[in-house]
Amino acid sequence: MILNFTVEDYVLGCLLNNPEYRDKLLVIPEDAWTVPEYREIFRVMRDMYFKKPNFQVVDILPMFPPTVQDTIGFLSFETIVTVFFNEYFEEFMNRYKRRKAREICEKFIMNDGDVDSLIAELDTVRNYQAYNVTSLDMDKLLVAYYDHIEKLYMSGGRIAGVPTGYPKLDELINGLQKGTMTVLAARPSMGKTTLAVNIATNAIRDGYSVLYIDTEMPPFAIMNKIMARGGVATYEDLSKGRLTDEQWKKFVAGFNWLKGKKFFLRSHNLTPRITVYDVLSEIRKIKAQHKIDLDLVIVDYLQNLEVDSHYRSRYEEVSAISRTLSNIARTENVAMLAVAQLSRSVENREDKRPILADLRDSGQIEQDAHVIMFLYRDSHYWSKEEREKRKNDPEANMAELIVAKNRDNQLDTIMLYWEPEKQVFVEAKEQ
Question: What GO molecular function terms would the record report (predicted)?
């Protein structure tokens, strides 16, 4: 019966029947399916995969009308034999790439679109490689392991990941590791966006490439934070353009320093709705257009990302977002720093230092993250009177960066000093 199937029939049938192949759900573009009904089935399967990777066909059938249920039943029945999946999947993806290439070439012929953008689109299609899970035998594993340790040895024992610019933190977590997700979480107004921007600025200063995906602030606000962190002027003065002649010179110097840096900003002002799938799309677009491998992707913040379909609960939705970001970090080999909100339960305790249970909306975040850090400032909870009374107290600007999960090392707290006018956190001299 397989010979009577189209390639799409067989690939979709295998994905329905065999959980072993469902990692492909994360990398198949939605428009790879030419049959609208198949796109609908694919979307539901992809969303179900985040909740229950080993789902059965009966788990998704109630989500479809009877006509689509009949199609699913037919595909599932006719693809009991799934051993030819890899060959069919390769042909499926090749057909998709040929269609996309044809569409782009037609745009060239019709002079429809910017030439450079069309070339970048074509290059994206040409370089597209679907993610494949492969195992390593011991000999291959040893070669890869040797190369990894040799690289670390030749570097003089430097940290393996992307440096955050905070030496004590980098020593503790070995930098932001490629292929993993690190979570930076805090209650509102603690300074988590500022710390994330500081880390991004430190990374581009050291020559690393950074994609910053912001879901809340206008792009110029992010740039003001970068400039204030560089000592150009205070964040408030930059926001109002209230600069002295000397500060203007510093601004121009900072402007020239930033030119050519490998920093990419995706702001909600440009596209109000940012989905978790947009993160993957943006990474691949930058790789294709700029011919670089991204080092660090910062998402600010995780719970503000959207997904394409509806979930029964907020918990399931955030779990899907977290799992997808973690998978993207692994498949695209980038260090993923996800900023996250904490639940209000923190406010109800006498000791308001965050704990892992405070991660808002989902325990899945704790499972997916390689490292989890909490930013905490005790002075945030001071009364107005106490804040005025202790405004010259060094404790007023002290912050704690609590490493609450660290798969590769011990847990600890890094003391930081907060300079609000400069929008910068620096490591405290004494710990």
Answer: 5'-3' DNA helicase activity; ATP binding; DNA binding; hydrolase activity
